[in-house]
Amino acid sequence: MPATFYRVECQECGSRQKIFSRPASEIDCNVCSETIAEPSGGQAELESELIEELAPE
Predict the structure, then answer these.
(1) Distance between terminal CA atoms of the chain?
(2) What is the pTM of this model?
(3) Three-class SS state of 19
(4) What is the C-alpha to C-alpha distance for residues 45 and 42, in angstroms, rounded to an integer?
(5) Contact 11/34 with Cβ under 8 angstroms?
(6) In sequence order, what are the residues at sequence separation of 6 or more whose Cβ sits closer than 8 angstroms to the Cβ of residue 18?
(7) What is the pLDDT, as a whole number, of residue 56?
């Protein structure tokens, strides 16, 4: 299965960033350092708003 990325928006500051859909470690916002996603043994456990799922190129 090809890798998928998500475009998410931080609930705290509203910044958007692209993250891997199956992270191995906690992902923090690049602007405010709020946790936006955590690993869950598969798909990311999002603590931010999913804007779009980006197809592999």
Answers:
(1) 13
(2) 0.82
(3) strand
(4) 9
(5) yes
(6) 5, 6, 7, 8, 54
(7) 72
| Residue 16 contacts residue 9 (beta carbons within 8 Å) | yes
Cβ pair 41, 21 in contact under 8 A: no
Would you give per-residue pLDDT tens digits along the chain (57 residues)? 567 999 999 999 999 999 999 999 999 999 999 999 999 988 899 999 999 999 876
One-letter amino acid for residue 21 of the chain? S
Map residue 55 onto helix, strand or coil: coil
Here the tokens at position 14 are 């509203």
Q: What is the DSSP string of 27-39?
A: EE-TTT--EEEE-
Nearest-Å Rg of the Cα atoms of the chain is 11
Tokens of 32: 């405010």
